[in-house]
TrEMBL record:
<comment type="pathway">
    <text>Protein modification; lipoprotein biosynthesis (signal peptide cleavage).</text>
</comment>
<keyword id="KW-0645">Protease</keyword>
<dbReference type="InterPro" id="IPR001872">
    <property type="entry name" value="Peptidase_A8"/>
</dbReference>
<feature type="active site">
    <location>
        <position position="155"/>
    </location>
</feature>
<feature type="transmembrane region" description="Helical">
    <location>
        <begin position="151"/>
        <end position="172"/>
    </location>
</feature>
<dbReference type="GO" id="GO:0004190">
    <property type="term" value="F:aspartic-type endopeptidase activity"/>
</dbReference>
<dbReference type="GO" id="GO:0006508">
    <property type="term" value="P:proteolysis"/>
</dbReference>
<comment type="similarity">
    <text>Belongs to the peptidase A8 family.</text>
</comment>
<dbReference type="GO" id="GO:0005886">
    <property type="term" value="C:plasma membrane"/>
</dbReference>
<keyword id="KW-0064">Aspartyl protease</keyword>
<comment type="function">
    <text>This protein specifically catalyzes the removal of signal peptides from prolipoproteins.</text>
</comment>
<feature type="transmembrane region" description="Helical">
    <location>
        <begin position="86"/>
        <end position="104"/>
    </location>
</feature>
<dbReference type="Pfam" id="PF01252">
    <property type="entry name" value="Peptidase_A8"/>
</dbReference>
<keyword id="KW-0812">Transmembrane</keyword>
<keyword id="KW-1003">Cell membrane</keyword>
<keyword id="KW-0378">Hydrolase</keyword>
<keyword id="KW-1133">Transmembrane helix</keyword>
């Protein structure tokens, strides 16, 4: 008794339809990171704002971390709360524009991703200022009785992006200088 292998047919794509390979460039990665950060920031603030009454008194997550609902007139960590509203918006937009220029002129992945993190965070806080006149903060980190100023995901992204950018400048430039 002979068992034949199942017959397979080769399917050929028409010549005019070609599979495209998409490669994300360094430039695109910076803007993609900015968009992702912006969505995470705005989404988290939307959830927090919907639960504002519950979070006003603080909600313990685990020792050292609470979720709270605070509206902040300043920039990251409440700094410059005395500055006029419009000045902070213009300053944020100016920083974003400078970072966009850096992304366009630079082909370095680490630079562009860190700039994208800063842009996404800055835009998230700018949107809050335009919509609400203040920025929504909700992360409360503390040790004992010492509470760090509350912050949000945009602040996390801005600080992380700045740290990555700084370390990259220090360590990558140092490597290039020794070559």
């Amino acid at each position: 008794m002979r068992v034949d292998a199942p017959r397979t047919r080769e399917v050929r794509m028409p010549l005019h339809i070609k599979a495209k390979k998409y490669k994300v460039t360094s430039l695109q990665s910076g803007f993609l990171v900015a968009i992702i950060v912006l969505f995470i920031d705005q989404g988290s603030k939307l959830l927090v704002t919907a639960q504002a009454e519950i979070l006003r008194g603080g909600m313990p997550i685990f020792p050292g971390l609470n979720f709270v609902f605070i509206q902040n007139a300043g920039v990251s960590f409440g700094l410059f709360g005395f500055a006029p509203h419009l000045v902070l918006i213009i300053f944020g937009i100016l920083i974003c524009c400078i970072l966009v220029i850096i992304i366009y002129k630079n082909n370095d992945l680490h630079h562009n991703i860190s700039c994208g993190m800063i842009i996404g965070g800055a835009l998230g806080n700018i949107i809050d200022r335009i919509r609400h006149g203040r920025v929504t903060d909700f992360i409360d980190v503390y040790v004992g009785q010492f509470h760090w100023p509350s912050f949000n995901m945009a602040d996390v992204s801005i600080v992380t992006g700045a740290i990555i950018l700084s370390f990259g400048e220090i360590f990558f430039k140092r490597k290039e200088a020794t070559r």
